[in-house]
Amino acid sequence: MKTQVCRFTFILLSSLALFTTTTVSIAQIQDYSRVNLPDGAIVRLGKGGVSYEDRGIAFSPDGSSLAVATSIGIWFYDTETFDEIVLLTGQKGEVTAVAFSPDGTTLAAGSGRVWEGTLKLWDVETGQNIATFQEQKGSVSSVVFSPDGTKLAAAGKLWDVETRQQLNMLQDKGLSDLTFSPDGKILAGTSRRTFPRTSRNDVAMRQGTVKLYDAETGQLLNTLAATRRTKWGEPRGRVESIAFSPDSTKIASAAGHDVKLWDVETGENIATFQGQKGKVESIAFSPDGTKIAVGADEGVKLLNILTGKHLDLLGAMWNQSVAFSPDGKMLASASGAGVRLWEVSTGKSLTVLQRHPRIVNAVTFSPDGLTLASTSWSRTEIWEIATGQRITTLGGPPNFALSLAYSPNGTRLVTGSYNMKSTEHTVKLWDVSTGENLSTLHGHTGFVTTVAYSQDGTKIASGSEDKTVKVWAVETGQNLATLQGHQQVINSIAFSPDGTKLASGSDDRTIRLWELPTGRPLYTLSKISLNEPEQGDAVDTESEGSLAQVKSVAFSPDGLILASLDEDLGGNMGGDAIKLWDVETGEHRATLTDETGYSGWAVAFSPDGTKLASGSWGDFTVKLWDVSTRKHIATFPGHIGWVVSVAFSPDGTKLASGSYDGTVLVWDLEPVKH
């Protein structure tokens, strides 16, 4: 397998250099930040979030490589060196589940999650997509080959691998998480039944079941009542994961906080392991059949089914997937922080395959343009743009940063966070060179969703879920002002270039402009003209529409224009577009839209004020706009999730975009000038 994967890697990378004379060496594979980049991108920071589904990771049959399903494609890792081998891209939507064929020559991958996805087969030796099955109406949450490799189960359906035709042997349309017994005789799947309420005040009873079928005929053999919900507070009736023992005599099911063990022949519940830490998301049997690995919201556990004892594996939270290596010596677990490999005999953590953040919330360039900071749910990272290498990591659980901003001199970074274990949500100031937390500012009672640095470096502003904006003195940490007036969460704030004003945008469909340092409200923007004036014409104030939820605000470099971006998922008139406002008068000057109707989630001015960039939630693109003509001039596709943050480099030659696909893409803007 290792030889096949290396050859496949060489072929793939060579194909990327068809129009160059430089020979691509296998050593270049280690620069993951430049593998399979979309057109126009010069570097990728981060490798995409790991799948939420319970079959998002898989060892090759010989144990030499590990396939990881992510939001941007499928990563292969070498299990000896833990290095990246290759990235496969081409699935529709984020990849949710992967499985190797029994002989290791083929990889099956399902995708989708939220939108329609695909089921694809990849040739492991060549890296070619050798088959694409019909597109699914929903996410492909699981894939598994039959032991003889002739069938493929995916998203509750069965397929003939050779003919690519669907097999209609299963009559139950509500099945999910199908899996074969190791001896190939039984096919198991999960389903859920809902029973009508007995009274108006009663809760609908839901029963999570595991169904066992004859793998050849599709005949139903048994139904196991794995969980039942009869009152509020009990599990919602869903079986999250199932796994057969290696000898095919037992099957385990996970639901809520419990793992149950069943006798396959009799259907008897022979053991129940209760009290797992957090909700159980995934389970897997060890190859020798003595242990069950449990991936849960609050950790990974090894259950010894012979003694009933368990071993807690520390250092991992929100584990969606677990998988044993074929020899049983290693365990892989996938979580929001990445993929961790464990030594089974000792429970020792061997390594973490990092740079797999689930969501990138914010990005910003350093003032010298040499580094870029990004923040995700798991950590804040500072990257060297020239090499794509991570320089520093700031913070981590239980404090999760949602926003960040560089100081004007580039020596400090401010982050706004939320705390998973308390209601105290803070603003933190960091030393960029050392990673030291210089100070922590307390006072917000909700998530700190947005932060900003004043141009003179003396003040920090923060906006929060608690509906307030706070202004702080950098050196003393003193709260200089608390600005109140918004009725819902504040999504974005911005200092004017001269530091005399502060703008804030909120889900309450308003933009507020505040005077500094007094904190006096200047005006509230909530209406726009629907009939756009030509340049130089007066604004039509008689025909007006309302703003939608305001997600982003930004001042032009000269401070004369305020740009805002409001998201209209519900079809509100006048929403989902970039708006330009006159800062002195508060008048709406223009609305920027294009033919797609998806204008974005984040907006930023170029350093010279001639262009605007926006990140889209609808088509996952980055768009560039000409401010003077108000026209859309360029689109950069490449992300697989909502683009929620955009930032120009100080010299205006690059643009960074942060996405819910867990990556930052840095785009080259030089071709746009020409």
Radius of gyration over alpha carbons? 27 Å
| Amount of helix | under 10%
Number of strands: 58
The number of helical segments is 2
Sheet of most strands: 4 strands, antiparallel
The outline comes out as elongated
How do you describe this structure in short?
With 674 residues, this protein is mainly β. Helix content is 3%, strand content 48%. A four-stranded antiparallel beta sheet has the order 1-58-57-56. A four-stranded antiparallel beta sheet has the order 2-3-4-5, with helices on one face.
Structure description:
The protein is mostly beta strands. It contains 2 helices and 58 strands. The protein has a 4-stranded antiparallel β-sheet with strand order 1-58-57-56. A hairpin with a 2-residue loop joins strand 23 and strand 24. The radius of gyration is 27 Å and the shape is elongated. It starts with a helix and ends with a helix. Residues 1-29, 532-543 and 569-575 have low confidence and may be disordered.
